[in-house]
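Lab notebook: predicted structure, single chain.

Context: the supervisor wants predicted structures on file for every construct in the current expression panel, including those that have not yet been purified. This is the next one on the list. No modifications to the sequence; it matches the entry in the shared construct table.
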Amino acid sequence: MKNLLITLTVVMAFSCTQKPDVQYPETRKDQVVDNYFGVDVEDPYRWLEDDNSDETKAWVEAQNKVTFDYLEKLPYREQINQRLTELWDYPKTGSPFNISGRWFVFKNDGLQNQSVLYTMDDIDSEPYVLLDPNKLSDDGTVAFSGMDVSPCGKYMVYKIARSGSDWNEIFVMDIATQQLLDDHIKWVKFSGVSCYNDGFFYSAYDQPEAGSELSKSNKGQKVFFHRYGTPQAADELIFSNAEMPHRMYGAGVDESRRYLFLNESESTSGNGLYIKDLSNPKSEFVKLADGFENDYIPIEVIDGKVLVNTNKGAAKYRVVAIDINNPMEANWTVIIPESENTLEGVSFCGNKLFALYMEDAKSKMQIFDVSGKYLGDVDLPGICSASGISGTQNGTTAFYSYSSYNTPGTIFKYNTETGESQIYFQPDVKFNPDDFIVKQEFFTSKDGTQIPMFIVHKKGIELNGKNPAMLYGYGGFNISLTPGFSTSVIYYIENGGVYAVANIRGGGEYGEQWHKAGTLLKKQNVFDDFIAAAEHLIDAGYTNSDQLAIRGGSNGGLLVGAVTNQRPDLFKVALPAVGVMDMLRYHQFTIGYAWATDYGRSDDSEEMFKYLYAYSPVHNVKAQDYPAIMVTTADHDDRVVPAHSFKYISRVQELNTGKLPTLIRIDVKAGHGSGKPTAKVIEEMTDMYAFVFYHTGIKPKKSTK
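Prediction complete. Output recorded below exactly as produced.
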């Protein structure tokens, strides 16, 4: 009874006003002015870019105190946390994969902070633990981030990331004894590991100056070869390009480990591709394709020809064969021509090509032989996302997974000879998937373009405009939002929420033209599409502007920041996560320069500057009523540095004329999102839903526990 009285008191206190009294920390303003093409631009919160200063650290601490004091007073937090934890607590298994004749699989017993790597002596034997990342730290903030196995099967070379940073470290384990060698490679970033003979290839940067590790622009990536048992200082330099320090280089071998691919890029899309015959010590790199206007993704080398998935001459991608000895484009052979659906990826297993397509952002998988003859489809259920087939070039056993908004990852074992699929792993979840409806609708954007949107809700809801709703978007970098499972989304829907994902322009759902239509001087299309998605949800009777929350992360955080500035009346809650908020200076931090092909740069031209300045979230905060805002970022985010979020929320807190709270939640020992431990994810989701539920009028159901 005592707990009930306390809860009622809190609810009544919050019901009397739109927000409790929030006293934001005072944020110092400096007289900092930059001149762009004759235009003076103030940047009064520039000092917050220094993540190492005592003043910035004190500001972070003060903002977090305000935010967490507010969140702790919200009703139902304990109840929300309890049900989220309950939903999360089910065994999860990834698709098994084979490297150097050995099978591996990742498993999580439910609430483990990091998934555990298992291995099997053969596919029918019992998996046993090879590496448990949960034992690498006390709080689960060390994450496994990649691996390869030596050709002889003796060593596993693996990467880890600490506290969510993009910086990786490489270690070597003897698989039989599970003992580590002395090998330890540091300052690895945006790199795979690829084993060959007595060592492995990797990419790294020079050691940064102390204190600049998480913010300084990353320049001069190099490719090295490391031999087992030697110090990093002795590693052989394979490739570097001092004349182009912003270019990135990655190396990887084919399945036979005869050929070395070198990938050259200067942004998030478009690359050059080179190949080297490792069986000939005197061989040089052969250019297969150069320039950065198109993508060239190697699939496999077959009979001296490289099969490549490319959008050169095919906006929705096609597969071509490039003769290593005669690589001119005029000599390319088309294996799988471009189709009406976007070719998302291609796997080569059992001497067959498995082509994964997106059909209106939903997965479809077709099978071809190496000459391009169509052999049939892999049957997939309804609105779903499938992974590519995982197996070996000559083996008959392969695996793939599928998921949807109401169905977590189910793993299928696939026979490449017979085409038979059987369930390998199906999770036992604590909700009924049949209670939810997953559908797709199309809406019209400002310029008349038809945009698809996935909508998920409980069966039996009324389209009376009185349902709370959450709209998610991204819209950039050729990234497609396909149907996928999220435990936290299930929790939102089972409490009466309508969840919508808009496949707006800038993504890759309909190929390169769709992507380009949301970049550079067309970026406003992305914001217009998202605004139109919100209007559709309202017009179709799903929700109303007082119960609509919007959410997005990274480039999606930019999206949320921009549309919140442009249409603050349309949403009740805005949740920009790790967003790119300062569009005039983003390219000056870590890997930001690589995003210029999507965004353009403020120093490119006067036209580009004015376009960026017109939508940059930091620079377009106005004296107006804002929705309830909770910005989220992290102290170890070296992808989109937290200064973006710091400057944005400072501006909003300064100018907001409304009564709703504008907060920032700054996670510690966390980064851009990858590798975040389960405990931290549940904590963040608890805070987010407590905030959203309160401001959109959701009273959560009691846990079944």
